[in-house]
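[Protein data]
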Amino acid sequence: MARRPKAAAAEPEATAGRADAPRRKGGRRTTPSVETLSGLPPERLIGLILGETARNPAFKKIVSAALAALQGPEAVAAIVDRRLSALEGARGFIDWQRRRAFTADLNATVSVIVDELRPLDAVAALDRLVRFLDGASGVLARVDDSLGITEGVYERAAEAAVEIVGALSEGEAAGFAARILPLVAGDPDGPLGMLFLDLIPRLPDGALPALDAELAQALASIPEEPGDWRAGRARGRLLRARQDIADRRGDVDAFVALEEAVAGEAADNVAIAERLLAAGRPEEALERVRRPRQRGAAPVTREALITGRVDAEAPVRARAAAEIRILDALGRGEEAQALRWQRFHDSLDAGMLRDYLAKLPDFEDDEALRAAFDRATAFPQPYRALTFLINWPDLDRAGRLVLDRAGTWEGERYEVLAPAAEALEQARPEAAALLYRRLIDDILDRGRSQAYAHAARYLAQLEPIDPEYGAFRERLRRDHGRKHAFWSLVGGR
């Protein structure tokens, strides 16, 4: 084997593995950048561009638009208009095999509008973005877009349109918003409906009164016919827009009236109470926040969508927090404290407990904290109790809870047990070991091969803290010896 050259061996470690480190041979950088590309001859760059245009239709569209920009905005607009006309006239279904290329083409169209047409004529670019967004429902109806990738192009276009409107004068911005009102009413759930709501926070203050008048006129033209869900959706969208305008203008009474017009008995009393409090009307705010609200679906957050869990207590938590703020504003501190403690007692809300303790006189917080921990250890929902004690943290009590309720823990609740076991490794290793064994057993008993790597990691973490590790591993070998994918990860023979 050839000996490594001494010069290479002496190379400083600081440059090893760096993306921008120079190549050893010749010392030239190969990462494309303004600096490196400027070193290529123009003929070579032209050849690379032409080669990519032959292979990549979307890139060819962008290059063609850049060349058209040399002739002026009309030439770029003509390219965009031809593509928009083709999209509006197309009827064929785009299956998953063609979706990637089709989406790349759509994305290139947006890039041409934003990067080439907008610098030359922002209003023309805005008009094309609106036309592109107005055709969204027709395009998305004929694309296999189960992952939402194509829809993401329309979201990008809407964001670009909002940014352009934000740079317009008051008159131009108001005129644009009024111009797309009929399109919003026709497709209230489409990208233009969302664009319209996103516009309101970006509009200049002087544009709001005229837009509100346009909205009122548009609402008057929508018939209120029972069973016409599309008209109902359009009315709801426009009412929400008027409500956002009222919010920006600080008109609390208008906000309340519009909230009740949209939601009726399910009106968001917390949102109303917060605005009444901000307006210096705490008595009205307290009356409003204490009104019963018609039960509806719990709000779904992005995290809930990902995990499949919905935070059903979010409305209750928000209502309690708002009521406490109002009581404090009214000088009714004892009632606010009682509500903080009740909220903690009912749900082990750590934030409420911290606020409660912070409001107590000196030397009273220790006794209150002991009462809180007693409540936590006796709480009827053990997973919530464990989560509270781990996060507070009180690892000694958390460990005792694990051991006292040893028969409770189920490995399928890994989102609670895994972080708890890791947190308890040093403070209460016997409790951590119990949880790790539950997690491993659940994965192997269910044959969840996609989680075998986690089980192998749990087993490695279990070894140094569990005196009965050997017996546990032998049992695993006896019960699950044929799960070779798992044993290959732990190095079992």
